[in-house]
Every structure is written in C-alpha cells, then in structure tokens.
Specification:
The chain is mainly beta. It contains 1 helix and 7 strands; from the N terminus they run H-E-E-E-E-E-E-E. It is globular and about 55 Å long.
Length: 130
C-alpha cells in the first residue's frame, strides 16, 4: 500500500472518530475531563475559553445540567441545528436543572468560561446510534 493511501486512510479514520468529539478553544489548570457519547463533564481549578459538543438525538430527550461555581463565570447554551435556542444561561451559579429538547435531531451544547473555578456535568440520553 502506498504512503498516500495510508495517509488518506488514517486521515479519514481520524475525521470519523472526531466527528462527535468535544471541541473548542480553552485553557485549564488542574482539570479532569470526562466525555462520553451521552455526557460531557469537567472539574478544574481554572477554566477559560469555550467547549462545544454536537449531539444527535433519535427522539426527544431531557438534558441534565449540574454546575458548581466557586469563582469566575460559566455560561451554557443549547441550540438546535437551525440556531433555535433551547437554553442560554450566563454567569450560572451552583445549581442543577433540566432542559427539554422536544424533537429528534442535532443540537450544539456550548460551555463558555471566564476564569471559572468549579465543575460542570451535562448529560442526556436517547443518543442516535447511527
């Protein structure tokens, strides 16, 4: 097999694997992150920047959000593929709540932080298996 074919195969594999990954531009200090097909969570001494995750639901679902804020600010938004906002919270204090997503399809979860110390845990179910 030629080098070009191997490079192409590896590149395509990485693209497929990263399609559902969390992405963004951020800086963390003393952080622990855990992302699965049905959740995204992180605890840290400091988090500044943004993290984004696109999820695909095969039916309506609730998103569970738990935030712990010791200092700084944390914003979270959830929008559908057409840009409709299901939730937009700014400077969220320590709290837990649910957001109902009323249809199947793709949604984008965005977490923005400014020198935030604490953690977040966002989880959902009924993920599209395809």
């Amino acid at each position: 097999m030629s080098i070009k074919k191997i490079t192409l195969a590896v590149g395509l594999t990485l693209i497929i694997l990263m399609a559902g990954c969390t992405r963004g531009s951020f800086i963390t200090i003393k952080s622990h992150e855990n992302n699965t097909p049905t959740s995204m969570s992180m605890s840290y001494e400091k988090f500044s920047g943004s993290k984004l995750k696109t999820i695909s639901l095969d039916e309506p679902s609730d998103v569970s959000v738990v935030v712990s804020t010791e200092s700084g600010s944390l914003d979270i938004s959830i929008t559908d593929k057409d840009g409709y906002s299901y939730y937009a919270g700014t400077d969220i204090p320590s709290s837990s709540f649910r957001v109902s997503l009323d249809k199947q399809g793709k949604y984008e979860i965005t977490v923005n932080a400014d020198n935030h110390k604490g953690s977040y845990n966002i989880s959902w179910d009924k993920t599209d298996k395809t």
